[in-house]
Write a structure and sequence with these properties.
The protein has three domains: 7-87, Butyryl-Coa Dehydrogenase, subunit A, domain 1; 123-232, Butyryl-CoA Dehydrogenase, subunit A, domain 2 (Beta Barrel); 246-375, Butyryl-CoA Dehydrogenase, subunit A, domain 3 (Up-down Bundle), CATH 1.20.140. β2 (142-146) and β3 (149-159) form a beta hairpin. The protein is an alpha+beta fold. α3 packs parallel to α7, α8 (275-303) runs antiparallel to α9 and α9 (312-334) runs antiparallel to α12. It has helices spanning 7-23, 35-50, 69-81, 90-103, 106-117, 233-245, 252-269, 275-303, 312-334, 338-343, 345-353, 363-374; strands at residues 123-126, 142-146, 149-159, 167-173, 185-191, 197-201, 212-222, 226-227. The strands form two sheets. The protein has a four-stranded mixed sheet. The chain is 48% helix and 14% strand. The longest helix has 29 residues, at 275-303. Bound molecules: flavin-adenine dinucleotide (FAD).
């Protein structure tokens, strides 16, 4: 595989690097899991949009740059290397937008995408329910037919960013599961401030309140906010999960930058005699590079007409375990630096990395997918 980029891609990289160097906030923004941090990250999205960097892979008409996968990966490398803020619009840009490109109407794309790109509408994903996580198809929240639309009833949970977000996309039961639980589901979007929506924040390990559960009692959704055909929700939702587990959520740029930061920490904080820690830092550098190469191989396959498909489960298991190991190494390196351990960037990152093997589909479920679909092993425990 030739990893040399053509001059026009390197020119794109230089443009991104230059813009980021001039625009990335000098000080770390407050956590986007707080009201204050959410607002600050929304402003950052607007600034990104002003430079046309908020959704680089979208067509130009919606505020993007029409960038291909190669350019997008290059942009991500530069983004994370520049220490730019986490993306509060990630659910919308990474999950809903690809779904709209594949299944939305032109009217929906024109109405929903530009405010998403500008950071004016931040989206939450409302899929999980108390009894429907890994087994998502057993969901019970329902949408009942009414004049010109639907009424939503039920409960959604574990919805990232929902406490401060504007809108949500979710799956609802609209018909009998005649030939299985995957039937009779409808994919639609709704307003988190509509009458009938109650948003209850769920405290995270660090106490920050952006995570939420949603209680829905007769929330009206007009027909124009149904994505795809009613009853086709499962097929539509599944077209986005590959991108959630794989490239869209965790580009290698993020881990290359984190591994570099870890290496810098080791240079300043490590006891050179501690070879065990040194080896773990080396593992982090090797892991980031391995993930980068694996991702470029996947990108090459996709560019030639392949799909992300079940292979994205390999990415998911890898990056979630990698992230955890990297942060544990950093905390061990910091040793007794108490302030850093309580509220520092590494400690915050570690707390979040604990959730990596759970969100975007648990690693147990990913391993089953790998076993069955990639290795051709017999069906397991389900
Ligand atoms: C930080 C975070 C953010 C999240 N954000 C969102 C969000 O924005 N929107 C949203 O809709 N959801 C979100 N989720 C929910 C997430 O998708 C679910 O937590 C996840 O799918 C697991 O579902 P569950 O919690 O119901 O656990 P369960 O499905 O009850 O699983 C419990 C345990 O049993 C195991 N298990 C279950 N079934 C099987 C099986 N068949 N074979 C083997 N093992 C099995 C699981 O792997 C797990 O270890 C988030 C979760 C976290 C932690």
């Amino acid at each position: 595989m030739d990893l040399t980029h053509p001059p026009e891609v390197e020119a794109f990289r230089a443009e991104a690097r230059d813009w980021l160097a001039r625009n990335v906030p000098a000080a770390l923004l407050p956590s986007l899991e707080t009201a204050e941090g959410f607002a600050a990250h929304r402003e950052w999205e607007a600034r990104l949009y002003a430079g046309r960097w908020s959704a680089v892979s979208w067509p130009r008409e919606y505020g993007g740059r029409g960038a291909d996968l190669e350019r997008w990966l290059v942009f991500e490398e530069e983004y994370w290397a520049a220490g730019a803020p986490a993306r509060v619009s990630q659910n919308g840009i990474g999950l809903l937008a690809p779904t709209l490109f594949d299944h939305g109407t032109p009217e929906q794309r024109e109405r929903l995408l530009p405010p998403m790109a500008r950071g004016e509408q931040v989206w939450a994903q409302a899929w999980s329910e108390p009894e429907a996580g890994s087994d998502l198809a057993s969901l019970r929240a329902r949408a009942e037919r009414t004049a010109d639309g639907w009424l939503l009833y039920g409960q959604k949970t574990w919805s990232s960013r929902a406490a401060f977000a504007d809108r949500a996309f979710g799956l609802f039961r609209t018909g009998a599961a005649a030939s299985g639980p995957h039937q009779g589901l409808t994919y639609l979007v709704f307003d988190l401030r509509a009458p009938g929506v109650e948003v209850r924040p769920i405290g995270r390990l660090d106490g920050k309140p952006a995570f939420a559960e949603l209680f829905l009692d007769g929330v009206f959704v007009p027909d124009r906010d149904v994505i795809g055909e009613p009853g086709q929700g499962w097929r539509i939702a599944m077209s986005a999960t590959g991108s959630e587990r794989g490239l869209a959520l965790r580009s290698p740029g993020r881990f290359l930058a984190a591994a570099d930061r870890l290496y810098a920490l080791w240079r300043t904080a490590a006891d050179p005699a501690d070879t065990a820690l040194r080896d773990r830092v080396a593992d982090a550098l090797v892991g980031a590079r391995a993930y980068e190469l694996f991702t470029w191989a996947a990108a090459a396959r996709i560019a030639e007409g392949g799909q992300a498909g079940a292979e994205s489960s390999l990415n998911k298991v890898f990056w979630s375990q990698y992230d955890l190991a990297l942060h544990e190494t950093a905390l061990d390196l910091l040793g007794g630096a108490e302030a850093e351990l309580i509220d520092g960037e590494w400690a915050q990152g570690w707390l979040f990395s604990l959730a990596g093997p759970i969100y975007a589909g648990t690693n147990e479920i990913q391993r089953d997918i790998i076993a069955e679909r990639l290795l051709g092993l017999p069906k397991g425990r389900r």
